[in-house]
Write a structure and sequence with these properties.
heterodimer; A: mainly alpha; 13 helices; 78% helix; 0% strand; globular; B: mainly alpha; 5 helices
Chain lengths: 243, 106
């Protein structure tokens, strides 16, 4: 009985994960291309995707690798960019079935991406970890294979195509931030403020020598900190973040 | 740089996994600080916005005009709440078209 329920949950997660997997493939294809263009091997790029499964963090990390940045810069950048996952893990920690062995928590954590989190947190009632695993089993191969195929194609990709695909990831980021920014004024201010500050770092003479990893950290801390101070969120608003 | 790429990957994967794992394993109680909750709520928006702009302008190899076309197309598609994939494709197509036009003019 229990086994059967777990299997059904897993299959449901697998089904729900398919569109996520397709979206991942396209984005991580771009990552694979950029990684190879930056000097990484196909296998390094694929390993990076398989072990990280995070778009923003990987793209920022890639820049640091290409620029031969320090490991501290890398660790700090990942910490700040991926800090959001800790909030997601906090939420899922509340939602997981109470009686499951704690070993599950280590495995659930590995698949805590924006999209899989969105699926899992939207389940009604308590979360069966097998649903989460099902979504992971659909999404993670999409992410990893996308990088592999992109890295293989990167060497033979015509210039006009790689130039066009270079904006795909930014398009995806905009698709994530613009709809909530439309609905919530503080989010709108955060988006505009962060863009303005990072633009300042890009054009002002001395500031534009600071590496992009630190610019992202600094901008995120300042803007998110100010927003949290001036516009603390109510309990209900978290829902918009989770989708 | 080849030999140290694996060290970078290890650091990235380690930090990212710890961020995901520690709250799940250590904290089973709810976060109560409104400031921390709010801060974590705003982080992805600030971070993604800072990464997108102005980087999107300089991403295409032909330069800022194609980048601006990609940005404009993505903003319109995202404002209409199209899917991630659609918005990403709109940006790519806009850059492609802009570069073809620029190439034709130049």
């Amino acid at each position: 009985m229990e086994q059967n329920t777990n299997k059904q949950q897993f299959m449901q997660g697998l089904r729900d994960g398919v569109p996520v997997s397709l979206g991942y493939f396209a984005v991580s294809f771009t990552f694979g291309m950029m990684a190879v263009a930056g000097g990484m091997s196909v296998w390094q790029a694929t390993l990076l995707s398989l072990t990280n499964i995070t778009s923003a963090g990987q793209f920022a990390g890639l820049e640091i690798i290409i620029a031969c940045g320090s490991l501290w810069e890398m660790a700090l950048t990942q910490l700040v960019i991926n800090l959001r996952y800790s909030l997601m893990s906090f939420s899922v920690s509340q939602k997981l079935q109470k009686n499951i062995p704690s070993g599950h928590r280590f495995l659930v954590a590995f698949g805590m991406t924006d999209e899989i989190f969105g699926l899992s947190i939207s389940r009604s009632g308590k979360l069966n970890p097998w649903y989460h695993y099902g979504a992971m089993c659909a999404a993670i191969p999409g992410w990893t294979l996308g990088t592999f195929v992109g890295a293989m194609a990167g060497n033979i990709m015509p210039g006009f195509l790689s130039s066009a695909l270079s904006v795909a990831i930014y398009g995806m980021f905009l698709a994530l931030i613009i709809p909530p920014a439309k609905k919530h004024r503080p989010v709108r201010a955060v988006v505009a403020g962060a863009m303005a500050i990072s633009a300042v770092f890009a054009v002002v003479p001395v500031l534009n020598r600071i590496s992009s990893g630190f610019v992202i950290i600094f901008t995120t801390l300042i803007v998110a900190g100010a927003a949290a101070y001036f516009c603390p969120i109510g309990d209900g608003e978290e829902e918009t973040h989770e989708s | 740089m080849n030999h140290s790429v694996y060290v970078y990957i290890l650091v990235m994967a380690g930090v990212t996994y710890l961020i995901r794992m520690l709250p799940l394993v250590l904290f089973k109680k709810e976060i109560t600080s409104p400031f921390v909750k709010s801060f974590l709520f705003y982080v992805p928006y600030a971070c993604l916005a800072a990464m997108t702009f102005p980087a999107i302008l300089t991403a295409p190899s032909s330069g800022m005009i194609a980048g601006a076309a990609g940005l404009g197309a993505a903003l319109i598609a995202a404002y209409r709440e199209k899917s991630l994939l659609t918005v990403a494709l709109c940006a790519c197509v806009a850059v492609f078209v802009a570069e073809q036009i620029l190439g034709f003019l130049g």
